[in-house]
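Exercise 7. Given the components listed, write out the predicted structure of the assembled complex. Treat all entries as one system.
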Amino acid sequence: MSVVVQNIPRADKAVVDAFSSYGVATVHEAQGRVGLLASYMRPIYRPAHISGSAVTCEVAPGDNWMIHVAVEQCQPGDILVVTPTSACEDGYFGDLLAASLIAHGVRGLIMNAGVRDAAVLTEMKFPVWSKAIYAQGTVKETIANVNTPIVCAGGLVHPGDVVVADDDGVVIVPREKAADVLAKSKAREEKEEKTRARLSAGELGLDIYGFRERLAAKGLKYVDYPYKG
Amino acid sequence: MSVVVQNIPRADKAVVDAFSSYGVATVHEAQGRVGLLASYMRPIYRPAHISGSAVTCEVAPGDNWMIHVAVEQCQPGDILVVTPTSACEDGYFGDLLAASLIAHGVRGLIMNAGVRDAAVLTEMKFPVWSKAIYAQGTVKETIANVNTPIVCAGGLVHPGDVVVADDDGVVIVPREKAADVLAKSKAREEKEEKTRARLSAGELGLDIYGFRERLAAKGLKYVDYPYKG
Amino acid sequence: MSVVVQNIPRADKAVVDAFSSYGVATVHEAQGRVGLLASYMRPIYRPAHISGSAVTCEVAPGDNWMIHVAVEQCQPGDILVVTPTSACEDGYFGDLLAASLIAHGVRGLIMNAGVRDAAVLTEMKFPVWSKAIYAQGTVKETIANVNTPIVCAGGLVHPGDVVVADDDGVVIVPREKAADVLAKSKAREEKEEKTRARLSAGELGLDIYGFRERLAAKGLKYVDYPYKG
Amino acid sequence: MSVVVQNIPRADKAVVDAFSSYGVATVHEAQGRVGLLASYMRPIYRPAHISGSAVTCEVAPGDNWMIHVAVEQCQPGDILVVTPTSACEDGYFGDLLAASLIAHGVRGLIMNAGVRDAAVLTEMKFPVWSKAIYAQGTVKETIANVNTPIVCAGGLVHPGDVVVADDDGVVIVPREKAADVLAKSKAREEKEEKTRARLSAGELGLDIYGFRERLAAKGLKYVDYPYKG
Amino acid sequence: MSVVVQNIPRADKAVVDAFSSYGVATVHEAQGRVGLLASYMRPIYRPAHISGSAVTCEVAPGDNWMIHVAVEQCQPGDILVVTPTSACEDGYFGDLLAASLIAHGVRGLIMNAGVRDAAVLTEMKFPVWSKAIYAQGTVKETIANVNTPIVCAGGLVHPGDVVVADDDGVVIVPREKAADVLAKSKAREEKEEKTRARLSAGELGLDIYGFRERLAAKGLKYVDYPYKG
Amino acid sequence: MSVVVQNIPRADKAVVDAFSSYGVATVHEAQGRVGLLASYMRPIYRPAHISGSAVTCEVAPGDNWMIHVAVEQCQPGDILVVTPTSACEDGYFGDLLAASLIAHGVRGLIMNAGVRDAAVLTEMKFPVWSKAIYAQGTVKETIANVNTPIVCAGGLVHPGDVVVADDDGVVIVPREKAADVLAKSKAREEKEEKTRARLSAGELGLDIYGFRERLAAKGLKYVDYPYKG
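Answer.
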């Protein structure tokens, strides 16, 4: 049986929105290096940087019917996250669906498959992260689930989780941890700002992070050229 | 035996040119979801959007000799479509060949292999769709066919077929069907314009397309969160 | 045992710098069609074009510790070339390490793995050629070699070799051959300039290069459409 | 923080064992076409067919330390399911670890990465499904979780879930649904047995399943050769 | 519109059958190095070697409905050739469909997608060449064409063409050329038999084929070790 | 200029031969986890296990001419190592060349491209490690080097290096280090034999290797199910 789960919980709006100030790499580190989607999930134009609440959607291979169902479940501030039930690069999504999502306040699309109308989506400034850009059309025959937990591009996504996406890819933050991860992202960014200043001034990471002793203990040797290995 | 077929037929120029107003996704749908080349055929710069008549060219792996032969068969308004006789990513084509094609009025290149001088081609505004960007040079030793039917990136291309290419990829329209597919592309675009307006106004595809009843008949259920799947 | 080789030789600075006037395809041809890295090594932004002296660095999979060690070995005009000891797409390098390299006059990064903070690196105008853009973080646990010969993306790189990188990819010129290859690059460019002018004027490569006789000898036939193959 | 979760629940032993009578395709269908791992997970030798209870294990890229930790959590009848925290093909597992798992009654390994000693594992008749066979060695530096839920090759696996693996790949059955899915697998097999007999006797699926009317309603036409499409 | 083309022509049975004495490499050479399907088309068990007449079948992604339609068009001595209308690795075909094909005298399957029940197909000795082995199930919702020309794995296949498949892959011989290609295959094999004997006796290809002079003319030099390149 | 280097040095025959007693994984570990070729280099049949002295050979893409040249440089006990100058999967090598190599005492082939006649090579028991099995034929037009250092499948190979290949892949041992690596391989095997016995008796690696304390120091915690992560 396929279901559409309604009235899903979302994280606090201020928290969700604040994530758009932090890059995917920062958020990923802040939550302990978990939650990244696969490296093949790429933005269709750059730069792009959004955060929002996940509405999840399964689709059959070559069949985009459930995306239409999912649109109705979206609220302003959401990001639609779509995955096929088996691997597919067809163009499930184009400018008409983008117009529909924009009308409902959706901030972007995470599509573990292909999209089309890439030039128009770029002009519309509707950000999309996808596996492929491909014009191949899809049918409307097979139902699947909306707003159930899904595995998308190697990541587990629950409806209402926070999605952060930028030029580096996509990271998922579980809803319950959102506030904590946001605070840690802020702390990390502040700490990095100081390190960045020191590195820009020419100091070495070797010294800032104190690596020299541990490297020597591991057996690293410094030799002069020519070296016979 | 390898041959160069001369004096190929082409579709009506007005028809060929008019296709550049329609995106690859639209044309692909208009002709019944056929004729797309593989999703790995990507433009070397974006945006890019052209239509033209196909001149087809086979090349041996790592050997671009026949491209020089094909140039002579090109006329203004043509698009050169090249495929190796076995898979190869070498850089068969660069700025010199582009200069030559431009001099003969060719609108772009579809290359099921690699190209090089990508920065110069971009500056020249000579659009190319290819499998790879790669500097690897090629030899001139082995002959093959020009203007015979070829399979290029999964698609069958006859000389004189209409090629349409944009940011979504490449679609081939058989010469004999060009006028019909053009008319259908125009009709589709007009219909989509109306749908786009309704979707932008917030109407749901579920209602515009009347999907609700059929979804229910398939067994789709709406449930409230929390749902135990 | 892992080593850091210090005081490596470099090619003459004027030679190294002069390579930035020649594209990767030209240099690759000038040195006899050798020295290219694999086609998957792509610039994170375009256009980009640099030349410099290689500092080589091995890293363990998922471990960027040695990049910090390598920074200390870099001088103004260098390009850092990094390869993992087994294939990996993790994000070994981001904006902090870029700030550090910039502070030491490094011109760019060749990374046979992933990088992150792509948007910031683009804003900083720090050019990177990599296998992937991916936010995945790395650890600092395992040592490896700096400034020993490495195989990176299918190419052999010695410390002090000249690296040339542009939108077409990356080519390595052995230090001892740098002056010779530079001269040949210049000669090739001059010769191509003349050919380019003739091609742009509409002359055919078939005639400029005198291919017709050899093609006929190989058996190439010209036939009229319709041709039954 | 990394944890090792002890004393995980397992499905009823009789149920777990009974699954080895049913192929992966059958079980996958019986539970509604969900739970398959990616198609790149292949057996290192064929035929192979096992069922067991999942012990889950995360590992860092290029680091097999946690497999040693996981062995202690295994019981007779278990199958060890290992995934790296980012994509890796290194040889995490060889004949020594196989000897250890066999000593603890483990039935096989599901490894979303590489394994080595393939010839010895084949002789030992220890079945493994993996992404690669590769001799590359790994370090022991970084900790991760054992017996927490993991995403492995696109599938969500909880400790104690039932794993079924054969020449077609790997399917995961949630522990709570194991008895139900087993019953449905049995029912499906019995039904298919009857269909198989009819098909082997020459009856057509078109007739057995009653497809003809629905195909005609969709618009399928029968025409005689030659047909001009 | 989708069609099923009936009463297709086939090559002479004696010719079709005789091809099973010749390997794919031999037939490919005999017909001028054309007609091979892509290298990813692999037999599910080895050795396997068949020839037969092609019945062609398109399927939608994730939808195997049309295979049931195609079975009815098969005759003893046929080989079913199936391709999805966009790339897909789902398990379109298993032991039930194999039982049906066997009942109708079909000699094997060429599937540009996935198959399942690989262990049973192997026991049944029903040879299959496919892109993947994968248990993923398919639906029955979308119609497509049977016995129209298709592009399958990079090769053009007309219904009634001769298919030859062995451990090296799959080659297609156009029906009209079958007798000629068969004769050339036989001639090639006889010629190779003599060469094989000379090579096995220790003669060098350099001498048998008379390569030395042409190699020298190209500039090949023999030098003694150590050589400074 | 292309050269054939004659009279290359080889390692001591007893040493070269003794390597065939040790698996690729063992040799790779014994020489410090270096020298492996890429994981895509797979044996065309299993099991297979050889050692020998490398004769290296470059070939142009789609051109196997230089293999004929290389045969003459081979001696009994050699292994031919071939790489194309740019990536290619064509079938460079078949049963005729195998017959020739066998006649000259060559033990096997390492081919960073495709091979054909796989069924016959298997019957002949001529072991091959390759990137692909593919019938695609090649030409004889372009010269390249024999017995110069090459990068093959990510590994650096000098003529006369020791090649060890088994079901896990291929490892290269520099000639000068062969005796030392052989000794270390033997030592490693003996040590592993003892560990294997203890593991087979049920002892845990955690205890044998003394990992518990270091794992705890890294922060690994043991918790009871249910655990809220």
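Discussion: The longest strand of chain B covers residues 50-59. Chain B has a mean pLDDT of 97.
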